[in-house]
Structure formats: structure tokens, C-alpha cells
Design goal:
Blueprint lengths: L1 H14 L13 E5 L6 H16 L4 E4 L4 H9 L5 E5 L1 H9 L12 E18 H7 L4 H7 L4 E4 L12 H7 L6 H4 L3 E4 L2 H9 L5 E6 L4 H7 L4 E3 L4 H9 L4 E5 L11 E13 L4 H12 L2 H6 L3 H5 L16 H9 L5
Helix pairs in contact: 2-12, 7-11, 12-15
Length: 336
């Protein structure tokens, strides 16, 4: 009988899979999406992928162009493994099935890492338009209802529309739809399109994301007088709270036309993974990035000053961690 019990115990032990060792150098395969075909987001994704490929030689880690919202949709439907440009806006709208998502994607994607938390939404107007309409602040816009040609992104790119400008407008008592009611119009497109419209005199106001101290905005300011839309930090914070962001003050002198600090919505940007992605793939991607911090900074842009391995587990939206990421963070004491 004792022999039988021992044999049974041995059989059960043999049948129980040992915890996988993810600390080898075996290659992984993954597709990363969420970034447009050109511009900094693509540079960021390609740079991160290169770090992972070098850490695990032979890995097939590729880039698939998409938008931030489209990236979350892609990982939730197994069309890609990671998306690298998600903010609290995409997380909440996807979980709740709100536009631009057609259904709730809750449970189909999870949190991997915070990449940076220094994406600032710029709220800029031409001095010519501001002077003509007596506008200095958000409160002035709400009160005077001026005719405005607004350069802003498309609503299906929600982090730079629904997730910030729309909410600030609501906090001050009007909506994006009121712009047309006041006789205004829109120039819809990414930040480069919007700044071109400002330069060419086709737009009066610009609302979109750029890196602080952006050289293109400085160049435009040398040709056309610009101003930052002033406001109250507490009111902007009310808007930022909707999608777990912060209201922060852009320092005086960030641009030549800023004689004092001005409020802006400061967003965090995260890497997410589809629930279908194996734990090993996520663990190794996270480990490669965490252990090559200097190289990640060298990618430049927002990562240069915004990425920190010690802050990778920061999760403002409290989205469930992917098990592979959670395993690494627990090993390093970043998550209990």
C-alpha cells in the first residue's frame, strides 16, 4: 500500500508541469501595433522592438501600423500582440464599449508597462485671432463664443480628442459641437496637419499632442505670433480626471510666447497586450526593456525623459496586469 501511494505521488509530481524558466535567451515572436506609419510613434515602436530583438537573438518582433484606438482593437481581436500607444482614454472607452469601439473589449487585453507619462496636450491660438476676439482663456471662449477654425485630431483618435480637449471644453461649459454652432469649422488630422494649418493661416486654434519644447512650434512662433490658452489648473484637473490623467503646468519659457506657466493635460502612455499572448513573450519583452534603460532613453522623444524602469509597473487605470508582466514585476519587487 505504501509503495502504491509513493508511486501515485511520483506520477502526480511528474504530471505537474514545472514552472517555466523564462530567463533563457530563446527568441520570441510578437507583433507590436498602435503607431502610425510615420513619425515619432513608429520610431518609438521600432526602437523598442530592436532592444528586444537584441536581447533575444533570432526573435521575430515586428511593427504593424495602426492608430492608438485601432491598436487596442487589434490586440483584443488577436490581430496583433502588443499596442504601444494606449492611454487612459483608450483603456476606458474599450472596456466600456464606447466610441470608437463598437463593443466592450473588457477582459481581452491587459496592462504591460507604462512607457512615459509626459504626453502634453497643447492648447495654442494665434495672437491675431485672440486679439480680434478678446480671448485669453478657456473662460473667455465659453463666454464670448467666438468663430473658431479649430485644428484638432479626428475623434477616432480618442486620446488627443475625447481624452483631453473635449473634456476641457466640457469642464468650461461647452462642447466640441458648439464650435460649429458658433460659426466655426474644423481642420481634422494629426498634429503635423494641424500645425501646417496654423502656419498657412487656415486655422486659429490648435489642440493636439506634441513634446514640450517642440522645435516645429518654436519655428512657427517665429513666423506667426502664438499664445497658450490660459485656464485654471483645478478646472483642467477635473477634465483630466475622467481618463486618469493629470493637469500639469507647462513652465514659463517652454516656448517664446509663454511668459508664465500655463495648464495642460498631461497623459500617460502604456504598452498593452492581448490576453492571448503567452506569458513568456510578455515577460521577455518587459525584461528586455527594463534591463536596457539607457538604450530606451536613446530612442529619444518622450522616452528620453519619460521612461524609467522603476516606474514601468505604474498603472493609473488599474487595468489588470498581463500575467507575464506581473511575474517580472513581482520578481523585482515592483508589485506585491
Amino acid at each position: 500500500m505504501a509503495f502504491a501511494r509513493a508511486a501515485l505521488a511520483a506520477a502526480l509530481l511528474a504530471a505537474t508541469p514545472a514552472m517555466a524558466d523564462f530567463n533563457d535567451k530563446q527568441p520570441i515572436t510578437a507583433t507590436v501595433t498602435g503607431a502610425t506609419p510615420s513619425g515619432y510613434p513608429r520610431t518609438m515602436v521600432e526602437g523598442l522592438n530592436a532592444v528586444v530583438r537584441d536581447a533575444y537573438p533570432g526573435s521575430a518582433v515586428s511593427f504593424k501600423p495602426n492608430s492608438p484606438g485601432g491598436g487596442v482593437q487589434a490586440i483584443a481581436t488577436k490581430q496583433a500582440d502588443f499596442t504601444a500607444t494606449a492611454t487612459g482614454t483608450e483603456v476606458r472607452l474599450a472596456n466600456e464599449g464606447q466610441f470608437p469601439f463598437k463593443e466592450s473589449l473588457k477582459g481581452r487585453f491587459s496592462y504591460v508597462m507604462e512607457l512615459y507619462d509626459n504626453q502634453f496636450i497643447h492648447f495654442i491660438m494665434t495672437k491675431e485671432w485672440a486679439d480680434a476676439n478678446g480671448i485669453k482663456s478657456w473662460a473667455d471662449i465659453a463666454k464670448k463664443k467666438p468663430r473658431m477654425r479649430l485644428a484638432i485630431n479626428r475623434p477616432d483618435n480618442p486620446q488627443t480628442t475625447i481624452g483631453a480637449p473635449y473634456e476641457v471644453m466640457k469642464a468650461y461649459g461647452f462642447t466640441i459641437n458648439d464650435i460649429e454652432k458658433w460659426g466655426g469649422s474644423y481642420v481634422l488630422g494629426n498634429s503635423a496637419i494641424g500645425l501646417s494649418a496654423i502656419t498657412d493661416g487656415k486655422a486659429d486654434v490648435f489642440m493636439n499632442a506634441r513634446n514640450l519644447g517642440d522645435s516645429l512650434i518654436k519655428d512657427i512662433a517665429g513666423k506667426r505670433a502664438l499664445l497658450w490658452i490660459d485656464g485654471d489648473q483645478a478646472t483642467v484637473q477635473k477634465a483630466a480626471d475622467t481618463f486618469n490623467n493629470k493637469a500639469d503646468m507647462v513652465p514659463a519659457g517652454t516656448y517664446p510666447f509663454m511668459e508664465k506657466p500655463y495648464p495642460a493635460v498631461r497623459q500617460w502612455v502604456a504598452l498593452l497586450a492581448g490576453s492571448h499572448v503567452p506569458d513568456e513573450v510578455v515577460y521577455k519583452y518587459v525584461k528586455a526593456i527594463a534591463e536596457n534603460e539607457a538604450r530606451v532613453h536613446a530612442i529619444g522623444g518622450s522616452l528620453k525623459t519619460g521612461f524609467a524602469a522603476a516606474k514601468m509597473a505604474t498603472n493609473p487605470a488599474n487595468l489588470p496586469y498581463h500575467p507575464g508582466a506581473l511575474r517580472y514585476y513581482r520578481e523585482k519587487g515592483l508589485v506585491k
